[in-house]
Amino acid sequence: MLDVVGPALCLVSAMFFGAMPIFGKFAYEAGVSPGALLLVRFGLAALLLATLLLLRPGLRRGPRPSGRQIMIALGLGAVGYAAQAGLYFSALQRLDASLLSLILYTFPIMVTAVAVLLGRERLTAQRTAALAAASGGTLLVLLGAGGMSFQPLGALLAFGAAVVYTGYILVSDTVVHSVPPVVLCTLVMTGATGTLGAHAALSGGVDLGFAARGWFWLACIAVVSTVLAMLAFFAGLRRTGPSTTAILSTFEPVVTTALATLTLHESLSPVQLAGGALVLSSVAVLQLRPRSPRQATPAPVAAATTT
């Protein structure tokens, strides 16, 4: 039996997240600072999701989250998402974007290794092949971008972002089966907004006096690359599990490279095309893998959320 919906949602999420650097480039050209980008991104996303829950009460249908689950979801945003974004953009000031993406995308290997060690996943031959293909393809896509600058501190920050994102995915998997997806996304965005708002208040605020077109690109980041991307991510994670979601997420840098070619007039080299083909092959391997009884029944993972 083919599991089409779960992998498709993971790929949609990767595509929406992959568009974010392009939107960010245009936002920076309009005078938006990194601090303003992050605060507006998460704040607007939290507002949109809360409004969606008010207008569509049915989206709240499902198990009522416990106090512990609510705190975990808020912590995912306040600690996990906010920290990962902060580390990422700090590293981006010191490293080429392609090298940063390469280091960040060590997270599928970390997620798979930790999930296997925790007993949440089995390291099947198909999953191993998919992980190898996805990692190798991502390496070719990013190395094909050309020369790279290197700073040890930047590399350390990028590696830290990958470690935080690994924890974020694994912790998300403990609540994603017990909390309605839109509720979970709203709590995550609210937590991130709280952390970034507090940081802005303590550091003297953020400059919102940028060009009007900057708000358009921020809206694209908040709606497409945050709200829609997060909803697809959690829905996909719920159906496929953490390691499969992480592997399919390696499609994100392929999307970023392709969009950069179309919008920023960068060209894809033969090496990058070969890398993209490898990443897509990992998707095919995962889709053809029959679902195991463990994956068909999410109870072992959901049980971890019991208070």
TrEMBL record:
Its main location: membrane. The keyword Manganese does not apply. The keyword Transmembrane helix applies. InterPro entries: Diverse_Substrate_Transporter, EamA_dom, EmrE-like. Pfam families: EamA (PF00892). Residues 7-142, 153-286 form the EamA domain. This is Permease.
